[in-house]
Amino acid sequence: MTRTRAYRDGVLEAEDFPAELLSDYLRDVNVTVWMDLCAPAEDDLAMAADELGLHALAIEDAVSEHQRAKLDHYDTHCFLTAYGVKLDEESGILAAAEIDAFVTERALVTVRKSERFDIDAVLARWDSATELGKSGVGYLLHGLLDYIVDGYFSAVQSLDDQIEALEDMVFDDTVDHKEMQRRSLYLRKSLTKLRRVVLPMREVVNSLMRRDLGVVDDVMGPYFQDVYDHVLRATEWTESLRDLVTTVRETQLTIQGNRLNVIMKKLTGWAAIIAVPTAITGFYGQNVPYPGFSQWSGFITSTVAILLIAGALYALFKRRDWL
């Protein structure tokens, strides 16, 4: 599915026109166009390449999947790869959707691998900031990057809340340790994945702000600087959360080890106390004559010995906090 827009002097003039008319609109120097390709076929990309003169290597990267977030420079255009993210709060699993963009002087072509990247939300950003439309491609590119980076913030905020919930569960006596371990693992994997897509965006946005590229004008400069600051904050936040979830996991393991030691200490103490009556009754159960054999005095002696020794051991262990 192909979607298109044409802006004349920053005002939306046409929408959803055939992609074949792209070059016709571009003949007017006052027009900026946008085209979106979702899961395009090779013919669609070939048509875009012919209309805009796109480099073969950029087309190849647009077809390939799992590219690193980057910005490549060619003679007539730039090629950008970025990722939108969405966190499943129920499971703690982060999903990333790749989006590529060809950036020319007066055209922006976005290429999505699937519908998972919500392009309608990007259009809403553009429509809510029409006063910036005269900045052309810079205005369109800012709306796209601003939406992507805001997604990073939403994801990292949700991850922060979930890690705080884990911290509260660490000292809970009734916590499900298996579920907590699973949750910790998923959150750490999500943070690692988020870091992998956020970290390269610093270089991408910083490169776009270079004056020699001509993508960002004086009007859009502060807006791109704001996006760059948000990327830095998201990166730092992600790094700190990765350390925090590791600390939570280590604390949980330490607490489990301490609880196990306490349990083993108590079991050992009770085993020592139980060993006393076992030993004494075993001794008196021998089928040989001994003092008090077959007499009440022997029974009383063994019973008193059991109570005294077991009581002494209990008092000793209790005083040392072994029970």
From TrEMBL:
- Cell compartments where the protein resides: Cell membrane
GO MF term (any one): magnesium ion transmembrane transporter activity
- Which family is this protein grouped under? Belongs to the CorA metal ion transporter (MIT) (TC 1.A.35) family.
Stretches that traverse the bilayer: 267-284, 296-317
Origin species, per record, is Amycolatopsis alkalitolerans
- Topology in the membrane? Multi-pass membrane protein
> Per its record, how is this protein called by name?
Magnesium transporter CorA family protein
Its lineage opens with: Bacteria, Bacillati, Actinomycetota, Actinomycetes, Pseudonocardiales
Q: Keywords, A to Z?
A: Cell membrane, Membrane, Transmembrane, Transmembrane helix, Transport
Gene Ontology CC annotations of this record: plasma membrane
Q: Keyword check for Nucleotide-binding, yes or no.
A: no
